[in-house]
Amino acid sequence: MKKRFLDSGKIVGTHGIKGELRRTQVITTYGPGAIVDLPDISVIMAATDYWNSRNSRVLHEANLQKLLGVNCFREPCAHSNDGFNESGTTPDTPAGEAKGTGTEADPFNSVAANNLATSLGSGEVSDKEYYIKGKIQEIKDQFAAQFGNATFYIADDENSQKFLIFRTYYFGGEKWKEGDGQLKIGDEVVVCAKLINYMGNTPETNQGGKLISVNGKTSIEGGSEKPDTPSTGDTTTPNGNFETWVDGKPNNWKTASSAGNASLAQSTDAHSGKYSVKVGGSTTANKRLGYKEMELKAGTYKIKYYVKAATATGASVQSGFVEISADNKPAGNYMYSGYINDITNTEWKLVEQDLVIPSDGTYCIVIMNSKKPGGDVLIDDLTLPLAISPLIC
Predict the structure, then answer these.
(1) DSSP string, 206-268
(2) HEC profile for 104-173?
(3) Is the pLDDT of residue 389 over 90?
(4) What pLDDT, on a 0 to 100 scale, did the predictor assign at position 57?
(5) Which has the closest alpha carbon to 111: 130, 128, 91, 137?
(6) How far apart are the first and last CA of the chain?
């Protein structure tokens, strides 16, 4: 008998849904490796390596993250993992007919894009870009100034198989900015991007694609819709995208204290836009990229940025902060949120960590480039908004 393993929520067999479990059961009574007995079938719970966490809610608990050395926690996902949808059918028999060759003149439709992405190996990215056309069925992340990209599903119509357009940039591959137009459900779009079979079970566009047209036009009238505004207390760091340089240095990334002690250089290998910052490394001492000292209220701040090793040596980083005294000297120990290891020079890696500021004061936010392995590292698209209400001490 051919078995299908369960990641959480619905148990899917070769002939559709066979049963359901509560979220709590899939991490307690019926955790990975457990046998689940159903009226017509018995299944084994798959290891978490096989769970598709792409759409799982991200949870944060700063103290536990620091103790365990992790960036975040994820809620058990509520759908089956191994390529099945809610109805128990597989992507091998999608709704709709595959059309197009993936060229500008003859774009893929959602079914054809799914077929090609599914044929790739787990995590494999196509060797070239393809054009994909369809009508927007669902918008997961609308364009906003923070990252300048959007994530949405397209299909020929509501009855066709959907395809995920993941974090695609605006026209010309530029980041979306205030005043640019927004997407709407029902818009017919053409995008150009490489395809990836994410985790071997989620066919989608690889991050970094671009809009080609919306409803046959190469622009969208702006001003009709606005992106979500930051919450009160937002301290998004100016020049977190490292696009502004003064006298060969990134604007605002010079500290009056010794907190920022790394050599900095401009790099054209950017996650988005034209530039990133290259933070020099050393095998004898940790080096720190520091943002100019600023007054911060006590609270939990969520730092986000993209990181990539500058060489094959690789890199390891930590996000942190240090309090600064009135005479511009570090007033205590550097506080970090855990190492981010195994950073390669082949892809950009998203880092999301919480920084818990214990009391009101002057602080310097830093990213430490570890002396092990000590290679140069690239940083881009950094933001630091207030994540949680200020702490009451």
Answers:
(1) PTT-EEEEETTBS----SSS-PPPPPTT--PPTTTT---EETTEETT---SSSS--S-EEEES
(2) CCCCECHHHHHHHHHHCCCCCECCCCEEEEEEEEEEEECCCCCCCEEEEEEECCCCCCCEEEEEEEEECC
(3) no
(4) 62
(5) 91
(6) 60
Confidence of residue 228 (pLDDT cuts 50, 70, 90): very low
Cα-only R_g, the chain: 23
Q: Could you tell me the CA-to-CA distances from 97 to 100, 128, 195, 224 in Å, in that order?
A: 10, 23, 19, 35
How many residues belong to the chain?
393
Q: Report pTM.
A: 0.42
Question: What span, in angstroms and rounded, lies between the C-alpha atoms of 188 and 192?
Answer: 14
CA proximity to 180, closest of 190, 189, 165, 170: 170
* Distance from C-alpha of 12 to C-alpha of 4, rounded to nearest angstrom: 6
3-state DSSP assignment of residue 180: coil
- Please state, in angstroms and rounded to a whole number, the distance separating the CA atoms of residues 210 and 212: 6
Q: What three-state secondary structure class fits 357?
A: strand
pLDDT band at 5 (very low <50, low <70, confident <90, very high): very low
Q: Is residue 117 within 8 Å of residue 204, measured between CB atoms?
A: yes
What DSSP element (H or E) covers 269?
none
Residue 378's closest CA among 286, 295, 281?
A: 281
Per-residue pLDDT band for 64 (boundaries 50, 70, 90) equals confident
DSSP secondary structure string, 280-306? ---SSS-EEEEPPPEEE-SEEEEEEEE
Q: How far apart are CA 323 and CA 358, in angstroms?
A: 10
C-alpha to C-alpha distance for 317 and 64, rounded to whole angstroms: 19
Residues 260 and 321: beta-carbon distance below 8 Å: no
CA atoms of 55 and 76, how far apart (whole Å): 10
pLDDT, position 168: 93
The pLDDT of residue 80? 43
Note the pLDDT of residue 204: 93
